[in-house]
């Protein structure tokens, strides 16, 4: 997944003659082209509370010194920024004459922990002391988060869903710009259908293996698919609390020879999985964004996914693949079978997906120019 430091690195390359600074943890080592302030993390009894106070203090003091002594003119709070949870102390200091930008902001999905309030300041923990602290500080963080957003000169929303949430939270629409996360189209290169191993039809899915991802629906669909097309293989990338349960289910359904559980794969190593696959499949029950869709589209995969906030905005039904209703195993099976029997359509969807990425999501050609436009306003 693209991290904030990666966004900073890409933006900085396009700021000739401008000095930029990133504030990151010691274990983050992006190839930053300019100043790079880092802070260390210790492990006290309450690491989350202490570490976050330490980060806020470090960030505020170093930023103020840079602004006052070296005359920086823009503060860009890169994500993560959770609406109603995250705040920036610099934005709350009265009289600080500096341009303040926030984002990209995304809407958090908490499907697997509906009854547990999750806060970006405190780590989620079963310890009741943590939960009491979260409940106590929640109203304060909501106020600080709203004040931060309202005092920002501009807010970047990751997609239209996030923009509408920001408007509901009180941010004026003219101060919000939708800028998606981009794709490195050189790293995630296009592989045409006729260059793949077409003796086996490869399905691919990625994600943290929880109930929200709906991976068990893919396994149930695969049972029906291989009845008609035995030469189909599903690769599942990701770890998570459901992994052993899903492995057991694959054995119970007698499809374990058609499934590979690849476990966690570094983002830098994903390209080879995309390039040998034909279709990305997903039955996620909730998504606020769909980075895996973009990565797969860049490599020329057709997409079959359930309808959710992330897929609805990225995937055009019938252009790059298909959208199916949530929980619709029969619908998923039918779409996969149709693509297996129509390889030219798989090829056409993949080429159209690649064109869409280059038109709308290319980091260096499209996305960065939108960031630079905000800086220059």
Automatic annotation (TrEMBL):
Q: Which InterPro entries match?
A: Glyco_trans_1 (IPR001296), Glyco_trans_4-like_N (IPR028098), Glycosyltransferase_grp1 (IPR050194)
What Pfam families would the database entry show?
Glyco_transf_4, Glycos_transf_1
Residue ranges constituting the Glycosyltransferase subfamily 4-like N-terminal domain according to the UniProt record:
135-186
The domain of life is Bacteria
According to the entry, every stretch annotated as the Glycosyl transferase family domain falls at: 202-355
- Signal peptide positions (record): none
Gene Ontology MF, one: glycosyltransferase activity
Q: Where are the transmembrane segments?
A: none
Q: Write down what this protein is called.
A: Glycosyl transferase family 1 domain-containing protein
């Amino acid at each position: 997944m693209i991290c904030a430091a990666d966004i900073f690195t890409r933006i900085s390359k396009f700021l000739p003659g401008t000095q930029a600074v990133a504030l990151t943890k010691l274990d983050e080592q992006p190839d930053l082209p300019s100043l790079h302030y880092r802070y260390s993390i210790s492990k006290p009894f309450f690491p989350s509370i202490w570490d976050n106070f330490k980060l806020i203090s470090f960030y505020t003091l170093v930023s103020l010194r840079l602004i006052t002594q070296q005359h920086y003119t823009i503060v860009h709070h890169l994500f993560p920024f959770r609406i109603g949870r995250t705040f920036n102390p610099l934005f709350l200091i009265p009289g600080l004459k500096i341009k303040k930008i926030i984002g990209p902001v995304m809407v958090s999905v908490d499907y697997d922990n509906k009854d547990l309030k999750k806060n970006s300041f405190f780590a989620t923990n079963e310890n009741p002391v943590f939960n009491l602290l979260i409940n106590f500080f929640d109203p304060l963080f909501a106020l600080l988060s709203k004040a931060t957003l309202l005092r920002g000169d501009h807010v970047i929303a990751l997609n239209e869903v996030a923009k509408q949430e920001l408007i509901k939270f009180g941010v004026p629409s003219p101060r919000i710009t939708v800028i998606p996360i981009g794709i490195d189209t050189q790293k995630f290169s296009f592989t045409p259908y006729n260059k793949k191993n077409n003796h086996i039809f490869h399905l691919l899915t990625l994600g943290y293996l929880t109930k929200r991802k709906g991976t068990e629906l893919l396994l149930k669909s695969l049972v029906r698919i291989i009845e008609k097309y035995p030469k189909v293989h599903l690769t599942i990338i990701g770890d998570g609390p459901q992994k052993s349960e899903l492995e057991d289910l694959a054995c119970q359904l007698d499809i374990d020879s058609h499934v590979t559980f690849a476990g966690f794969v570094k983002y830098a190593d994903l390209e080879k999985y995309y390039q040998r696959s034909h279709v990305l499949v997903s039955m996620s029950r909730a998504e606020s964004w769909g980075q895996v869709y973009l990565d797969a589209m860049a490599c020329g995969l057709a997409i079959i996914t359930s309808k959710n906030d992330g897929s609805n905005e990225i995937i055009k039904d019938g252009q790059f693949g298909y959208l199916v209703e949530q929980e619709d195993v029969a619908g998923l099976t039918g779409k996969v079978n149709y693509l297996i029997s129509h390889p030219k359509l798989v090829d056409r969807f993949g080429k159209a997906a690649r064109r869409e990425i280059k038109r709308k999501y290319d980091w260096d050609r499209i996305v960065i120019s939108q960031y630079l436009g905000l800086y220059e306003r």
